Amino acid sequence: MDMILMIAWGIWKNRNEVRHGGRKLAAAEIYGTASRLREEYVAAQEVSNQPRDNPIDQLRWLPPPHGWYKVNADGAVFSKHKWAGIGVIARDDQGRVVAAMSQRLQAPLAALEIEAKAIEAAAMFARDIGIQNVVFESDNLQVCSALQGETEASTTIANIIAGTLFHMHQIRHVEVRHTRREGNKAAHGLAKRAQSIDDFVTWAEETPPFINSVILSDVNQAFQV
């Protein structure tokens, strides 16, 4: 029944796209999309049903342990242009920005895929700037659970998860944590910024001006007495 509903939705969606000048999809393409969406739905249900004795969700950004770094990652989908954006920001245990990156991908990735690509980019970024003892954070629970080994990655992101773990293994100590969107605002702002750049932009030991207020808010809340 789930599959029938996914296919019906796919047909309806493609008809609307055709009416607005879009391309008519072949039956196999609609079936493939429906199958992928069903896999993602089933995987998300498995994640939500996982018992969590020590919930790690948080409503604000928190600093990493002393001597560690925290790297937040987020993705954004620009469906109008069939682009996607990635935002990554690394901060030390005092909330100071060590490095940041905003990258645009010329690919029409689905939401789950871009969230997985974002954390993979974060792992490579952390490795390249040479930081060790890293807490990686994403606001996508499905991606975090796959990286933590709590659930099996869906087929659409299995290769991305494998690549991410490979890069993380090149860093001395690594933790992966899930955060709420409220705790991931800086990375989200960087991902959104990708819409206005050609390829990618990085910042080293400076705060990107357009997220300066977010960084200040994060630090004030994290260290308030």
Output the keywords.
6 strands; 7 helices; Nucleotidyltransferase, domain 5; alpha/beta; 6-stranded mixed sheet; 225 residues
Report on this model:
- This is RNase H type-1 domain-containing protein.
- Pfam families: RVT_3.
- It comes from Quercus lobata (Valley oak).
- It is a single chain.
- The chain has helices spanning 2-19, 27-48, 111-129, 141-147, 158-168, 185-193, 212-222; strands spanning 69-78, 83-91, 97-105, 134-138, 174-178, 200-204.
- The chain has 7 helices and 6 strands; from the N terminus they run ααβββαβααβαβα.
- It folds into 2 domains: 2-48, no CATH class; 69-222, 2-Layer Sandwich (Nucleotidyltransferase, domain 5).
- Helix 1 (2-19) packs across helix 2 (27-48).
- Mean pLDDT is 87; it is low at 46-57.
- By secondary structure, the protein is of the alpha/beta class.
- Strands 5-4-1-2-3-6 form a 6-stranded mixed beta sheet.
Sheet-strand content, in percent, reads: 15-25%
Parts with pLDDT < 50 across at least 5 consecutive residues: 46-57
List the strand order in the largest sheet: 5-4-1-2-3-6
Quote the CATH topology of the largest domain. Nucleotidyltransferase, domain 5
The biggest sheet, with number of strands, parallel, antiparallel or mixed sense and barrel status, is: 6 strands, mixed
Structural class: alpha/beta
What share of the residues lie within helices? 40-55%
Mean pLDDT: 87
Number of strands: 6
- One letter per element, helices H and strands E, the order comes to HHEEEHEHHEHEH
Number of helices: 7
CATH architecture of the largest domain: 2-Layer Sandwich
Protein name: RNase H type-1 domain-containing protein
Domain RNase H type-1: 72-194
Pfam families: RVT_3
GO molecular function: nucleic acid binding; RNA-DNA hybrid ribonuclease activity
